[in-house]
C-alpha cells in the first residue's frame, strides 16, 4: 500500500546534515513511483564525481531528471498522482538561475504558483544558508537573500516543513 507524502514537503538543513537522506526516505516510504529531479551542474571534477556517486547510489530504483534551470517545466511534465518526486536541491537551482541572469522573482513565483496544483507527492530539499555570518561579497549575500526568500515562499505553501541537523529531523510545520 502506498502512503503519499501530504502535498508539498520542504526539507531544510545545512551541508551534510542528513536532509537528502531523510527526504529520500519520505519518498521511499510513500511506495509511489520514485522520480528524482537533480538541479546540480558539474562545474569541476569534484562536482562531476559527486553527481556520478549520487547517480550510482540511487541506482535503477529512481527515474532521474537532470534539470538545472526549468524546474517548473520539469515538475509540470512529470507530475502524476502515482508518483513521488524529490527535488534536490533548491539552492543549486537558485545558483543556476543567478549564473544565467534569470529573473528570480518570476521563477520563484512560477514555482510557488505550481505547488498547490501538483498531484504527485513532492519533496523539496534545500540548504539553509542564512544561519551563519554575513557573507563578505555581494553575490554571496544576494544568494543567501534569494534562498531565504524562496524558503519562505515554499514553506508558506508546504504541508510539512522539516529542519534536519546531525541526521535528526525536526518537524517545523504540519
UniProtKB/TrEMBL annotation:
<dbReference type="Pfam" id="PF02283">
    <property type="entry name" value="CobU"/>
</dbReference>
<keyword id="KW-0808">Transferase</keyword>
<keyword id="KW-0418">Kinase</keyword>
<comment type="pathway">
    <text>Cofactor biosynthesis; adenosylcobalamin biosynthesis; adenosylcobalamin from cob(II)yrinate a,c-diamide: step 5/7.</text>
</comment>
<dbReference type="InterPro" id="IPR003203">
    <property type="entry name" value="CobU/CobP"/>
</dbReference>
<keyword id="KW-0548">Nucleotidyltransferase</keyword>
<feature type="binding site">
    <location>
        <position position="66"/>
    </location>
    <ligand>
        <name>GTP</name>
    </ligand>
</feature>
<dbReference type="GO" id="GO:0005524">
    <property type="term" value="F:ATP binding"/>
</dbReference>
<keyword id="KW-0342">GTP-binding</keyword>
<keyword id="KW-0169">Cobalamin biosynthesis</keyword>
<feature type="binding site">
    <location>
        <begin position="55"/>
        <end position="58"/>
    </location>
    <ligand>
        <name>GTP</name>
    </ligand>
</feature>
<keyword id="KW-0547">Nucleotide-binding</keyword>
<comment type="function">
    <text>Catalyzes ATP-dependent phosphorylation of adenosylcobinamide and addition of GMP to adenosylcobinamide phosphate.</text>
</comment>
<comment type="pathway">
    <text>Cofactor biosynthesis; adenosylcobalamin biosynthesis; adenosylcobalamin from cob(II)yrinate a,c-diamide: step 6/7.</text>
</comment>
<dbReference type="GO" id="GO:0009236">
    <property type="term" value="P:cobalamin biosynthetic process"/>
</dbReference>
<protein>
    <recommendedName>
        <fullName>Bifunctional adenosylcobalamin biosynthesis protein</fullName>
        <ecNumber>2.7.1.156</ecNumber>
        <ecNumber>2.7.7.62</ecNumber>
    </recommendedName>
</protein>
<dbReference type="GO" id="GO:0005525">
    <property type="term" value="F:GTP binding"/>
</dbReference>
<dbReference type="InterPro" id="IPR027417">
    <property type="entry name" value="P-loop_NTPase"/>
</dbReference>
<feature type="active site" description="GMP-histidine intermediate">
    <location>
        <position position="54"/>
    </location>
</feature>
<dbReference type="GO" id="GO:0008820">
    <property type="term" value="F:cobinamide phosphate guanylyltransferase activity"/>
</dbReference>
<keyword id="KW-0067">ATP-binding</keyword>
<dbReference type="GO" id="GO:0043752">
    <property type="term" value="F:adenosylcobinamide kinase activity"/>
</dbReference>
<comment type="similarity">
    <text>Belongs to the CobU/CobP family.</text>
</comment>
<feature type="binding site">
    <location>
        <position position="88"/>
    </location>
    <ligand>
        <name>GTP</name>
    </ligand>
</feature>
<feature type="binding site">
    <location>
        <begin position="38"/>
        <end position="40"/>
    </location>
    <ligand>
        <name>GTP</name>
    </ligand>
</feature>
<feature type="binding site">
    <location>
        <begin position="13"/>
        <end position="20"/>
    </location>
    <ligand>
        <name>GTP</name>
    </ligand>
</feature>
Amino acid at each position: 500500500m502506498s502512503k503519499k507524502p501530504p502535498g508539498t514537503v520542504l526539507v531544510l538543513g545545512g551541508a551534510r546534515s542528513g536532509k537528502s537522506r531523510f527526504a529520500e526516505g519520505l519518498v521511499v516510504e510513500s511506495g509511489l513511483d520514485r522520480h528524482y529531479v537533480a538541479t546540480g551542474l558539474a562545474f569541476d571534477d569534484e562536482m562531476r564525481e559527486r553527481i556520478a556517486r549520487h547517480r550510482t547510489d540511487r541506482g535503477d530504483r529512481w527515474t532521474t531528471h537532470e534539470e538545472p534551470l526549468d524546474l517548473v517545466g520539469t515538475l509540470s511534465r512529470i507530475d502524476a498522482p502515482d508518483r513521488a518526486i524529490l527535488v534536490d536541491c533548491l539552492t543549486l537551482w537558485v545558483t543556476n538561475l543567478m549564473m544565467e541572469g534569470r529573473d528570480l522573482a518570476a521563477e520563484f513565483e512560477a514555482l510557488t504558483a505550481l505547488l498547490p496544483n501538483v498531484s504527485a507527492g513532492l519533496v523539496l530539499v534545500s540548504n539553509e544558508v542564512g544561519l551563519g555570518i554575513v557573507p563578505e561579497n555581494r553575490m554571496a549575500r544576494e544568494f543567501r537573500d534569494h534562498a531565504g526568500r524562496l524558503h519562505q515562499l515554499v514553506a508558506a505553501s508546504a504541508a510539512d516543513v522539516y529542519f534536519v541537523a546531525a541526521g535528526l529531523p525536526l518537524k517545523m510545520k504540519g
